[in-house]
Amino acid sequence: MATLRDIAKLAGVSNVTVSRVLNHDHTLSVSEETRQRILTVAEELNYQTPRNRKGNKHKDISGIKIGTVMFLTEDEEEVDRYFQFIRQGIEKECMAAGLKSIEIFRKSIFEHPEMNFGDVDGLIFIDRSYNFNDQLVKQLKHIVFVDSSPDVESFDSVVIDFERVVQQALNHLIKLGHTKIGYIGGSRAYGKDPRHYFFERIMKEKGLFNPEHLYIGGWCSSEGNRLMNEAVSRGNLPTAFFAGSDQLAIGAVHALKEAGIRVPEDVAIIGFNNIEISRFMSPPLTTFHIQAELMGRMAVKLVLDQINGREEPIQVVVPTKFVVRSSCGAEISEG
Q1: Coiled-coil segments, which residues (predicted)?
Q2: Angle, nearest 10°, between helix axes 4-11 and 32-44?
């Protein structure tokens, strides 16, 4: 029996592209030539979608329940808008698909979550702020991880390429002449945040890493302000900083201004998330536009694809866009 992987290999595209074309996902941006090639290969292989295979009745979509597992309180989520946008994308896609219900399970970041999620048909884990136990999670059905990929061979995941993001930020700052670059970021319960991890690794590879230029705390603007004040008081201030979020960058910029340090003339700043206020700052903030809502929407599509019968795990990497504004001292490329 032909599989999605067979079609993807012959058509020269990814498994997820094949799945979305065969399930008539009109939101997929793909050329008509590619779409027809996939359909032709599927027909030649006599592929039948799970819902059309004999003896396999597809569940009425109106009765499907999706659960979303978060490791943030509502207040914490309000601070870290990245995760809020992911959740909103999940809810919007569920509503658009006509799903019966969406349940939110908020788990403590300090304890392993109990795997009791009622009668949901699929679960979406946003982040994974706990001691991951794949055997425990494998007892559940139809799982998708967003913003993490604890086991790419066993579970679907929707992620962004953090390594590429950090590489772009650092290459940009180095090209502008900066070699003394600091990092301001938040902590995670399960280990280093990927932005922190890749900052250290890439800076070490370039021979530019200085552990004294790492400032790790919380994720809110007040923490960005506090951490930058700490950096200023230490002396030997880096000439540029990459911040793990726009909220941190905003607090950091405010601290620099209070200390009479000019941005970007004395210190350049790059943020992450491209929240709305970032372009209205003075100076406007250089940052990365993250399609967090799309990540949530893709997670729902993957859950439904699993429910429809797909068994092969898929990882979707959602692209980011580097938005260059005045805070890093470079010519503006996008407002």
Answers
A1: none
A2: 130
